[in-house]
Design a protein that fits this description.
heterodimer, A: about 350 residues, alpha/beta, Nucleotidyltransferase, domain 5, 5-stranded mixed beta sheet, 10 strands, about 45% helix, B: about 220 residues, 2 domains, globular, binds zinc ion, tRNA N6-adenosine threonylcarbamoyltransferase (chain A), cytoplasm (chain A), ATPase_NBD (chain A), iron ion binding (chain A), tRNA N(6)-L-threonylcarbamoyladenine synthase activity (chain A)
Chain lengths: ~350, ~220
């Protein structure tokens, strides 16, 4: 085999993801999640996530190897999420990846989680046309990136100045008594609702606002106020209409800014990744607007949009191919790793 | 046999390589006393909260100093704490991954058992103004603990070894002592005749159930 086999470790939040990639071919993607343990807290509890990562680590590595039909001795390089994410959670993956790399005597790459969300699309849709614009939206991040070279040059155009898009979904779901995480239930409820029923605010879309930054905190508050107002007045609240109108406000801003970024930078390829990229309305509206603007839209299948090990292996594979130097032996975790640092 | 031992349960990162020789009488049960331990190389680094950064370089140095390749290691020993969780996990997951990669055994020991020698009590810093403690009999067997308590409530008896900063609050002298490679081996040698138990850190405290600001990605 000419192309290197890369083993990827992802532990930045509550998913222990171990994936194997050869070149740009996805071989396996094993996942263990502690999500159920966080549900009653309405958010991820870092210490619970870290304990679960440790417990799941070796078994998940072996599930990934077995699924791919390879052994540890076949591995040519290892990649691990070095940041951004929860420090304690990241450190379990970083320490494990360093130990495997040391014992197997293979190079180690400490990669940026956000860039990995972009790289995963190559496993399904082939080599990314560069430069591309990437919109990454999840419970932990909402960023708009310019990607001239995924292995060596990624620039941040904008990001959320308060809540991540996914956080807004979680909080609105709580207001509507829908389960955590809030994305899927709001997506489902919205299908029965009218997206124009309530005019919720579109954050940072004024002429003097930052062109590519996002804000979802005001929207979340507006939804809560609207619902509470109705309840106080003894009027019925249509969960479907609130869900549809809220969701429309989020995806309207996300897609408008992403398409604007493509136009402004003369880029005709847009990649959408992260957990919120699984939202059906976001995918539909992005497709509609990209078609109208002559932009090629690429979205990984929902399974690969959420955090996983294959995305880390996919980016690792690009780094190996590009001849980027491997990580120093004193690699640590960087909870706020900036996006222009693709690997360390 | 060659043993690589490591511990990240305290602010001092410990990595050591030891040769364990047995004077086994054919067919007879092997007593720990019939095993001799020789520490070939050791690092004890005041690492604070940089265990993840410094552990791999320390392992490499210790192996190089002992003239040993990783794949020659016959068994790994790791301190399971108690200790601050994030640093503790770095050591435990490292040992688990090394053992898995080499295809050999990993034995977990209580880190307090590896502090000092001949003490009746051990105390280490559990943060939040509490101590991790354990007590030992004259033969070195652990009698009680490991536990986590306010120093005033820790049932320790003299001589106490470990973190000297607790002398005042314990109301008795604490003789300075830290985790050592010899201590890790002393605790592990009696375990070597059996298959290793699963590596579970001695957390002693439940997780603080405060959700982080970073939320779960919105999707399945
Ligand atoms: Zn993510």
């Amino acid at each position: 085999m000419s192309q290197p086999l890369v083993l990827g470790f992802e532990t930045s939040c509550d998913e222990t993801g171990i994936g194997l990639v050869r070149g740009q071919t996805l071989l396996s993607d094993a996942l263990a999640t502690s999500m159920a343990e966080h549900e009653r807290f309405g958010g991820v509890v870092p210490e619970i996530a870290s304990r679960a990562h440790l417990e799941a680590m070796v078994p998940t590595v072996h599930r990934s190897l077995a699924d791919a039909g390879v052994t540890l001795r076949d591995v040519d390089a290892i990649a691990v999420t070095a940041g951004p994410g929860l420090t304690g959670a990241l450190l379990v993956g970083v320490a494990a990846a360093k130990a495997y790399a040391l014992a197997l005597d293979v190079p180690l790459y400490g990669v940026n989680h956000l860039a990995a969300h972009v790289a995963v699309d190559e496993l399904e849709h082939g080599r990314l046309a560069e430069p591309a614009i990437a919109l990454l939206v999840s419970g932990g991040h909402s960023s708009l990136l310019l990607v001239p070279d995924l292995a060596q040059d990624v620039q941040e155009l904008g990001r959320t100045i308060d809540d991540a898009a996914g956080e807004a979904f979680d909080k609105v779901a709580r207001v509507l008594d829908l389960p955590f995480p809030g994305g899927p239930p709001i997506d489902r409820a919205a299908r029965e609702g009218d997206p124009r029923a309530i005019a919720f605010p579109r954050g940072l879309t004024g002429p003097r606002d930052a062109t590519y930054d996002f804000s979802f905190s005001g929207l979340k508050t507006a939804v809560a106020r609207w619902v509470e107002g109705r309840q106080r007045a003894g009027e019925p609240v249509s969960v479907a209409d609130v869900s549809a109108s809220f969701q429309e406000a989020v995806v309207d801003v996300l897609t408008a800014k992403a398409v604007r970024a493509c136009r402004d930078h003369g880029v005709d390829h847009l990649v959408i990744g992260g957990g919120v990229a699984a939202n059906s309305r976001l995918r539909a509206l992005a497709q509609e607007r990209c078609d109208a603007a002559g932009i090629v839209l690429r979205t990984p299948s929902p399974r690969l949009c959420t955090d996983n090990g294959a995305m880390v292996a996919a980016l690792g594979s690009r780094l190996v191919e590009a001849g980027v130097p491997a990580a120093p032996i004193d690699l640590g975790a960087d909870s706020s790793m900036p996006i222009d640092l693709i690997s360390r | 046999m060659l043993v690589l031992a490591l511990d990240t349960a305290t602010p001092t990162l410990v990595v050591g390589l030891a040769e364990v020789t047995s004077t086994r009488v054919e067919g007879a049960l092997l007593l720990p006393a019939q095993r001799t331990v020789e520490v070939l190389a050791e690092r004890a680094l005041p690492s604070g909260n940089r265990h993840a950064e410094l552990l791999t370089p320390a392992i490499r140095e210790v192996l190089a100093e002992g003239g040993v390749e990783m794949r020659q290691v016959d068994s790994f020993v790791v301190g399971l704490g108690p200790g601050p969780f994030t640093g503790l996990r770095v050591g435990v997951v490292t040992a688990a991954a090394l053992g898995d990669a080499i295809g050999t055994t990993v034995y977990g020991v209580c880190s307090l058992d590896a502090v000092g020698d001949g003490a009746r009590s051990v105390v280490t810093d559990a943060r939040r103004k509490e101590v991790h403690w354990a007590t030992y009999g004259a033969d070195g067997e652990r009698l009680t603990g490991p536990g986590v308590d306010r120093p005033e409530d820790a049932p320790v008896t003299d001589p106490v070894v470990g973190d000297v900063r607790f002398t005042e609050r314990l109301g008795r002298e604490v003789i300075a002592a830290e985790v050592t490679t010899a201590g890790l081996l002393r605790a592990a040698v009696p375990l070597f005749d059996r298959p290793p138990a699963p590596l579970e850190p001695l957390y002693l405290r439940r997780p603080d159930a405060v959700p982080s600001v970073t939320r779960k990605p919105v999707s399945q």
